Structure formats: structure tokens, C-alpha cells
Amino acid sequence: MGKNIFVNYLGLLGVKHTESLSHQYFNEHPYQYNLYGLSKMLSDYGVENAATRILDKANDITEIQTPFIAQFSSDFVAVRNVEPDKVSFLWKGAKHDLSIAKFIESWTGIIMLAESSKKSIEPNYKKHKRKEKEILPLTDCINQVCQFQPAILNCTDCNSLRGQFQKSCSCCLP
After folding, report:
1. CA separation, residue 64 to residues 13, 60, 79, 80 (Å)
2. pLDDT band at 129; cut points 50, 70, 90
3. What would the mean pLDDT of 17-35 be, rounded to a whole number?
4. What order do you get walking across the sheet with 68-72 strand by strand?
5. DSSP secondary-structure letter at 117?
6. Which of 9, 90, 68, 77 is nearest to 42 (CA)?
7. What is the pLDDT of residue 170?
8. Of the candidates 30, 35, 43, the residue with the CA atom closest to the CA atom of residue 5
9. What are the angstrom distances between the C-alpha of 106 and each of 77, 92, 98, 102?
10. Segment holding 113, helix H or strand E
């Protein structure tokens, strides 16, 4: 699963959060795909934020403090860095680089700026982090067990449960 805009931006801002709860919070939020919703979610994590429209995109893009969220076509991206010749951003968890000219073609000029502080943190972060640490080893164990799953499936040749070793079937023999 790729990271969503909310999780990407929390990471860029250095806000303490657990990926599992942040993903869940974003996915269950009724306004996840608009600035109101993103602003509300960031505020719930103690991140001050504001949105605005940049009118002179070509001249002002290099002056915007990074990171910021940009409306890019009909989606949002987390802009990591703006250099004189390119824009680096995260979209669905993947890193992308575009020339400023190409970026501006799809950028609507709408941005959200945010500033984290010592108070910026996921609600109940310590509790969630502890729970996440307990769940990860269990997930690893389940993944290891699932690697052996073919050993308990039925044989495709004789339809017997593997491990019962039908002497007449070559694939069942140990």
C-alpha cells in the first residue's frame, strides 16, 4: 500500500506518528480528499496550517517554504524541495522530480503550508507506538508461516492433502 498524502506530509514535517493509525485515520476521514479535511487532520495532530492560492506560480514557486502540500491536477502532492530547475515531491508514497515548467502545468496554484512544533504529535502516540511494536513481530511470524502454506494445500495431481504422502503420486513423495 502506498503512503497517502497525510502520512507523507506528517513524515516530511517530522511529526511523531504511527503509520498504521495515520493511514486508518486518513482512510476513514469523511473529507480526506480536500483541503478542509487535510487541515482538520493536521490540526488534530497539533500541526498549525493554512491554505492559499499562488497567483504568479512561475515566479513565486521558488519562494515557498518547503515542505508544502500542492494541489496537482485533481490530487494532492507533498512537495519536498524546490530547486531553480526542478520540483521534488511525494505522490502516493513515491518520489518524483519534474522540471518547474512541467510541474506548473498541472499545479493549480493552491497550496497548504504547515508548521509542526513540540506539541505536534499523533493523539495517544505512545499507546499506539507500543501497540504497533507488539503487532509487527506477530505480522512477521504470520508472514513466515504463510510462506509454508503450499505445504498444506491439496495436491493438484491426486487431490490428497499434502503431507499424507500418497505412494502412487510422485509430487506427494517426500
Report:
1. 15, 7, 10, 11
2. confident
3. 94
4. 48-53, 107-115, 68-72, 75-82, 86-91, 94-99
5. -
6. 9
7. 52
8. 35
9. 11, 16, 11, 7
10. strand 107-115
**Residue 76: count of CB within 10 angstroms of its CB:** 25
Strand, coil or helix: what is 144?
Answer: helix
With cell 496554484, the residue in question is 109
Confidence (pTM): 0.75
- pLDDT tens, position by position, 30-60: 999 999 999 999 999 999 999 999 999 999 9
Q: Are 92 and 77 in contact (CB under 8 A)?
A: no
Fold topology of 5-115: Cathepsin B; Chain A (3.90.70)
Torsion of CA 133, 137, 138, 144, to 10 degrees: 160
Residues 154, 43: contact at Cβ < 8 Å?
no
User: b/e map of 146-169 (b: 16 or more CB within 10 Å)?
Assistant: eeeeeeeeebeeeeeebeeebeeb
Mind listing the pLDDT tens digit for each residue in 99-111? 999 999 999 999 9
Instruction: Provide the grid cell at 86.
Output: 526542478
Whole-number Å distance between alpha carbons of 78 and 65? 12
